[in-house]
Design brief:
The chain is an alpha/beta fold. Strands 1-2-3-4-5-6-7-8 form an 8-stranded parallel sheet. α3 crosses α4 and α8 packs across α9. The chain binds zinc ion (2 copies).
């Protein structure tokens, strides 16, 4: 049993009217049985929710990615959408200074990020955090807005050990994507090797970032298996141990049945 803790099912190529059955069947054949379909903007949130309504094994989050600034959701809109029983988290939210286009974007991203944390605290639901080239501001805003009251996950983690430790101190789990399998990811592998297993999640972030041996091709939830296998090898543990522990961690954080 294995969980893909972060995927974008509605973005996968050619799902027939939101029917992800083929992808979920392929995943199941690889032992991947639970999925968190993560929202990136409120405009496409109904598509995310449709998948979660259709399949008991698919959960959903509500939020707007830091690069989606056109439709910055106010706190009350997030609260309304989060009432659905399959919505288990708020996000993905956070800061992404890599993709800044205009000077005002940073201010808008930060405001949007704060709104998500406020909504999550109000709802008592965990946060899904996207952080790129914005480590210090992300950690600062998490602290200022008291995100530790709800915790969450640093998704698609790509940073060093000190940052991981700071995030774990705030009650955030660390989630590894296919990036950990890339040759160049030595700093990241060090984190995957040293961190406590009971704070770890695995994800695909599909359709992006396919792990080795599928690097460069479209990613899909089944491939989270390669991420977990890679970490098991790295830590010299049986695959089952990594699968079981990350599944338990997922159930604990998002308060769902494993
Ligand atoms: Zn992301
Ligand atoms: Zn994502």
């Amino acid at each position: 049993m294995l969980v893909d803790s972060h995927c974008h099912l509605e973005m996968l190529p050619n799902p027939v009217q939101g029917d992800y059955r083929a992808y979920l069947q392929q995943a199941e054949a690889m032992g991947v049985t639970t999925f968190l379909s993560v929202s990136v903007e409120l405009k496409t949130f109904p598509d995310v929710l449709r998948g979660a309504e259709q399949f008991p094994c698919v959960y959903a989050s509500v939020g707007a990615h830091p690069c989606e600034l056109e439709d910055s959701p106010a706190v009350d809109r997030l609260l309304t959408h989060a009432q659905h029983p399959k919505v288990v988290a708020v996000g993905e939210t956070g800061l992404d200074y890599f993709h800044i286009k205009e000077a005002g974007d940073i201010t808008t991203q930060q405001q949007q990020f704060r709104n998500h944390i406020r909504a999550a605290r109000e709802l008592q639901k965990p946060l899904i955090i996207h952080m790129r080239d914005a480590t210090l501001d992300t950690l600062r805003i998490l602290r200022e807005e008291r995100a530790q009251e709800v915790g969450g996950v640093m998704h698609c983690y790509t940073e060093d050990w000190d940052t991981a430790q700071a995030a774990m101190d705030l009650g955030f789990l660390i989630s590894f994507s296919g990036i950990v399998t890339f040759k160049s990811a030595t700093v990241l592998r060090d984190v995957a090797l040293r961190m406590p297993l009971d704070q770890m999640l695995v994800e695909t972030d599909c359709p992006y970032l396919a792990p080795v041996p599928h690097r460069g091709k479209p990613n899909q939830p089944a491939y989270v298996r390669h991420v977990a296998e890679f970490i098991a090898q790295l830590r010299e543990l049986p695959f089952e141990t990594v699968a079981q522990q990350t599944t338990q961690n997922f159930a604990r954080l998002f308060r769902v049945a494993p």
